[in-house]
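User: My instructor asked us to take a sequence, write out its structure as C-alpha cells, and then describe one feature of it. I'm not sure where to start. Here is the sequence I was given:
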Amino acid sequence: MRQRIYITQPVAQSAIARLQKVADVKWNTDAKHIMTRDELIAAAKECDILFCLLHDRVPREVIDANPKLKAVASMTITPADIDIAAATAHNIPVTTIPALLVDDATADIAWALLLSVVRRTVEGDRLVRTGVFPGSQSSYLEGGAVSGKTLGVIGMGGIGRAMVERARGFKMKVLYYSRKQRPESEEKALGMTWMPFDDVLSQSDIVSINIKLTPETRHLISDREFGLMKPTAYIVNTARGPIIDEKALVRALEEKKIAGAGIDVFENEPTPDPALFPMENVVLTPHMGSAIREVREGMANVVVDNILALLEGKQPPNCWNPEVYAKQ
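Assistant: Let's start with the prediction itself. The C-alpha cells for your sequence are:
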C-alpha cells in the first residue's frame, strides 16, 4: 500500500515529482495561506507523513490527531514550532534541513534590508510611484552611509560569516560577538574583531542579528540593549523574530534611540506589531530570507531525501530526535 504524504504549501515541482513516484501526495495549493491548527489536524489524520514548512505550527494536538504518523518532515533548520516532545513520545521522527543551505540567501536578504533602510530606497520608491520627485539633490531623502561604517555582527555561524564577507566589499570595519571567539587566523583573514556583546552594540553603526533562537537568546535585544546603541545606528534581523523584543523595538524607534530597522522576522509571525507599519524608517519583509528559487528547490529536495530514507526503513540523515530510533 502506497504511503500518503501531505504538504502544507506548494514546494518545488521536482521534489513533488520524486515523492509521487513512491507515494500518494496531496498539498495545500495556496502559497499565501498558512494552514490553521484545525486544518493541520485534519491533514494529519489523513496522511502517513506530514511535510511542513518553517511557518507551520505543529503543536501536540496535531501530532496526537494521528499518533501513527511515520514522520513530521520539516523544511526548517530548527523546528521551534513543532512539539518535539509530543512527537518523540509517539516515536515519530522529526526531520529538518542543514543550515548551510540558506547561509548565502539569508545574508543576501540582510544586505538588501540594510541598504534599503539606511539609504531609504523603499521610501524613495513609494514617492516616485505617487508622483513625488523631490529633486536629485534634495535633502528630503538624505539617509545614512554604509561604505566605511562599522558593522556589528551578533553570531558568527555560516550566515554571520557571509555577512562579514559582503561587508568587505563596502570597506566596513567589522566587529562581532559570539560565545566562542573565532581563531585569530580566521579573524585576520576576514578582517573582523571580537568584542564583548555590549561593546559591539555601542560601537556599531549597523547591527546584524545572526544567531539561533534558544531560550537564552529570546529577547536578547530589548530596552537595555537599544539604550546602548547609537541614535544614528540601524538594526537588521534576519535570524528569528523573538530574539528582538518587538515592543522594545517599537519604543526604541518612537523614542529615536536608534535610526531605523530592517526586519525580515517577527516575534509573533505572521502578525508583526502594527505599530511598525506607519514607520518610514523601518523596512519590513515577510520572512523571505531563503526565498530564492534554486535554494528553495534544494531545501525541498533535502526534505524528500529524509522522507525517502524513512520509507526505505533507514534513519533519515537530518533527524532532529534520533532517540526515537534508539527505542526501536
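For the description part of your assignment, you could build on this observation: DSSP finds 13 helices and twelve strands in the chain. Try explaining in your own words what that tells you about the chain.
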